[in-house]
Amino acid sequence: MNTHISYIEANRQRMLDELLELLRIPSVSADPKYKDEVKRTAEWVAEALRKAGVSHVEICPTNGHPIVYAEHIVSNDVPTVLCYGHYDVQPPDPLDLWTSPPFEPVIKDGKIYARGSADDKGQFYMHIKAFETMKNTTGIPCNIKFLIEGEEEVGSDNLYTFVKTNAQKLKADVVLISDTHMIANDIPSIEYGLRGLSYMEVELTGPNKDLHSGLFGGAVDNPINVLCKMIASLKDENNRITIPGFYDKVVELSTQERAFINQAPFNHQEYCKALEIADTNGEKGYTVLEQTSIRPTLDVNGIWGGYTGEGAKTVLPSKAYAKISMRLVPNQDPQEISELFEKHFISIAPKTVKVKVSYHHGGYPAVTPIDSAGFQAANKAMEATFGKKPIPTRGGGSIPIVALFERELGIKSVLMGFGLESDAIHSPNEHYGVFNYFKGIETIPLFHQYFAELA
Ligand code: BES
Ligand code: MN
Ligand code: MN
Predict the structure, then answer these.
(1) pLDDT class for 176, splitting at 50, 70, 90?
(2) Counting C-beta atoms within 10 Å of the first and last residue's C-beta, which end of the chain has fewer, N or C?
(3) Is 196-250+296-363 a CATH 3.40.50.800 domain?
């Protein structure tokens, strides 16, 4: 362990500079105009794996962005760890809210500011630097495979196909992922669950064209007004989702497990203060920790229509749109939930509008048993480097491929993330602590060592 630390110390500046170089490539998967940059990122990652000493590295083309796959097999007698991450990033907008350009990383107050710094470039790159550290010091204790994709932020469609068609190649005893967060730098924690997702889009059409709101307003139903009413009705006064059947398959946790979840430190006042909100407003009967992890939700991600430009235009719009996503918990099925949503949404529309509902992407929820060898290895590794036992937490975010690893390959994932909730992932001024980056590089080799012992 000390050998690792001295190696990391001696190579600290270079390890940081390399990450900054990676952060300079704008690998926005959602926007076709970045296609070449995304490809360039895959090539950069492949080269970084080769330079770190991984014996076999390949770039696998897909119908979308390429997947980087690599493996380093040391022996048939040791377990295999599959490290998954994503090199694609969220779009950086709104650009005017960034204090420095999103693809020109700067370090301020010990934090690296750039799109993708925490989600997930800074986190998956720790695995490559941890590999390099082990390779050049104590050696590689497990067989290690790397699967780094370029489409996580857009639903991982092509990775689904890749995993299904490459089950043998991806065979492993555990999946290790750093793409989540911990409670605080001095309160390490490990997520043992992720929520699933159903992402929908709706389109309402009222009159056949935009109308003068003075000549027609008052008589003709306005699709934006209608949409707002319909959306408002999707939750009741207790903030429960009103879609019939929505909760049918939701696993209600035991009193013990709920108590366990609520052991994690949480301060409601500080939570509200950091967000500059007067109060929270979630599902009645559950704590915020529960509302954001073990309970399903429904949120409008965007809503538009009519005139949104400068100044005022008096118009009764023909169309209204919204993007609506639902976070799912065990045992909800994204396909079924999408169908329930569609059926319900159409049923509540008045006859004055036409409704179209479409499905973007989704993913199943996933839970990892905390008594598994993988979770225990992560637990021991973090305890060693933080000097404190990590707290197991249930997370609220989604990494859609995690459930597929389980269903298709039969492998559970360990979510050993080093980010913080305050890293502003997906937001302007995303950042990742320099402390967190190096803590990850220091901890990951211990995971492999302990996993080799425990598995
Ligand atoms: N890394 C995040 C998910 C995450 C962050 C989980 C923090 C737990 C804690 C991932 O990149 C992400 O943003 N996932 C998307 C889903 C995807 C289908 C767009 C999400 O959760 O919205
Ligand atoms: Mn991520
Ligand atoms: Mn993300």
Answers:
(1) very high
(2) N
(3) no
Boundaries of every domain in the chain:
2-194+365-454, 196-250+296-363
Strands (E), 110-269: 111-113, 143-149, 174-177, 181-182, 189-191, 193-194, 196-205, 211-212
What's the rounded Cα separation, in Å, for the pair 145 and 131?
A: 11
* Residue 302: predicted pLDDT: 96
Beta bridge partners of 357: 202
Residues with C-beta atoms within 5 A of ion ligand 3: 119
Pairing between strand 189-191 and 143-149?
Answer: unpaired
Query: What is the CA angle 11-15-20, rounded to 5?
Result: 150
pLDDT higher than 90, residue 2: no
In contact, 393 and 432? CB cutoff 8 Å: no
Put simply, whether the predicted model's pTM sits higher than 0.85 gets the answer yes
Q: What is the DSSP string of 125-144?
A: HHHHHHHHHHHTTT---SEE
- Ligand of minimum distance to the alpha carbon of 430: 3
Q: For domain 2-194+365-454, give the CATH number.
A: 3.40.630.10
In the reported structure, the alpha carbon of residue 191 is separated from the centroid of ligand 3 by a whole-number distance in angstroms of 16
Q: Could you tell me the end-to-end alpha-carbon distance of the chain, in angstroms, rounded to an integer?
A: 20
Residues whose CB falls within 8 Å of the CB of residue 31, separated by 6 or more in sequence, listed in order: 91
Look at ligand 1, atom 10, and give the residue with the nearest C-alpha: 399
Task: Give yes or no for residue 398 CB within 6 A of ligand 1.
Answer: yes
Residue with CA at minimum distance from ligand 1 atom 7: 180
Cα-Cα-Cα-Cα dihedral sign, residues 17, 20, 24, 26: positive
pLDDT single digits (tens) 77-118: 999 999 999 999 999 999 999 999 999 999 999 999 999 999
pLDDT tens digits, 280-333: 999 999 999 999 999 999 999 999 999 999 999 999 999 999 999 999 999 999
**Residue 297 CB less than 6 A away from ligand 1:** no
Q: Looking at the predicted structure, is the pLDDT value of residue 1 above 80?
A: no
The pLDDT value given to residue 288: 98
